[in-house]
Amino acid sequence: MRYTLRKSEGRKSRWRFSPGIRLKLIAFLLPLVFLLVVSVAATVTRITDSAIRRDLLQRGVAISRVVAFSAGYSLLSGDRLALDSLAAETKNSAADIEYVSIRDMGDTVLAHSRIEERGKGYLRPAGAKPLGTFVDTRADEAMEGGRALIEFTTPILFSGKRVGTVSLSLSKKSLVTAQEGIRRSIIIAASVVLGIALLSTLALASVITTPVKKLSSGVNDLASGATFRPIPVRWGDELGELTRNFNRMAETILAQQNRLSRYAKEVEEAYVSLVRVIAASIDARDPYTLGHSTRVARISCEMGRKLGFSGEELEHLEKACLFHDVGKIRTPDDILLKGYSLTSPEVVEMRAHPGDGAEILRMAPSLHRYIAVVRSHHEWYNGQGYPDGKKGSEIPIHSQIIALADAFDAMTSTRPYRKGLTPGEAIEEILRFRGTQFSPELTDVFVRMAKDLPVLETEEWKGMAL
């Protein structure tokens, strides 16, 4: 600040206060920087809190639906052991799952992750507060034993009819912990920036003006989600330190965003793990097809590598292979395990599994990319397949690859009513359907791949792909 001597006519000269440029900059820039940092911190906090809460809800809904899908047939068949196993395995699959309850239409608990609850009438948690309904799954916020929970309630449907209910509860502790950690990091970063801002505003106007504009632009980029590039540090004074700390704050925020992305990836991997369990369970229903989905994935991925697929595309192909027969969960055992040829009505029911699988995947938004592949893996190149009669390029390439691997594994597997073919015989059979059931180009790639693999007639074939 400074004092300026001013004169007035007819009066004595006197000193009058006049603020200097530094004080003006402090008065102008500090509120601006404070508002920018606070607004960014508030925006990022709100976004991250919402994203974590949304991911927790999506995860709970997905797990609840998977359990409901898995429990339908066991509930109708009265297989209490399978229901108990499903409840226990689901509870043990994640640390934040508090309990899993499967009950009949009379709200009697048939299976529960807590043994003492089995056979009792279901009691809804006291003071439950509705959070919303996601398709057919209801989410409620409640307290139990002093712990905050979110309970997900999903009807168990079989052939379009409700046969029971699944209730699954997730602890909110992990949600609160993640939110507190993010807020703490943001507060620390914001405090550092504000402290450096107080020192930096004391610099000369000519030095401050341009960097502050760059900081403002960087904040806007960060808040808008645009690609952030660190602001160059051109000075070694407080202003340069401000810029460096702003870059650190941006890195902290971006790191938190990356952590959220990894969390979303972990959620998707949890979905995949659950479907892996379901796929293995489906394969295990028939001892002659045990491991079928895994073998199809190995063969398909080996072929994908021959076609030059990227690592990400190979990962999607592998997951699609694991999902391709998930619809068979709705196929009754008397058809799936039949030891001789199926009747026409049974064939129709068996052929429903691609559509059923697509419907199951439709329940989890992160798995939608696999719906078309699963639905089309029994389509023929000439349009004579099912369920939609697609042909040629209308069929996704992943579906065409799975069709080849699926046929090969089916032909080389021994069934009660026939002995499995040797790999060489299976390849000859595939060549017979080149251009009709299978794409000519992909058939040629498959045959070349098979010939390149060493010791085709041994078990090494089953370990070559992955």
Give a structural overview.
Helix content is 56%, strand content 12%. It is an alpha+beta fold. It folds into three domains: 20-49 and 179-261; 64-176, Beta-Lactamase; 286-463, Orthogonal Bundle (Hypothetical protein af1432). The strands form two sheets. Strands 4-3-8-7-6-5 form a six-stranded antiparallel β-sheet. Strands 1-2 form a two-stranded antiparallel sheet. Helix 1 (21-77) runs parallel beside helix 5 and helix 3 (173-200) packs antiparallel against helix 5 (238-285). The radius of gyration is 32 Å and the shape is flat.
Mean pLDDT: 80
Number of domains: 3
Provide the gyration radius in Å.
Answer: 32 Å
The assigned structural class equals: alpha+beta
Beta-strand content: 5-15%
User: Share of helix among residues?
Assistant: 55-70%
CATH topology assignment of the largest domain: Hypothetical protein af1432
Largest sheet data: 6 strands, antiparallel
End-to-end CA span: 73 Å
* CATH level-4 homologous superfamily of the largest domain: Hypothetical protein af1432
Q: What order do the strands of the largest sheet run in, or round the barrel if closed?
A: 4-3-8-7-6-5
Count of DSSP helices?
14
Order of helices and strands: EEHHEEEEEEHHHHHHHHHHHH
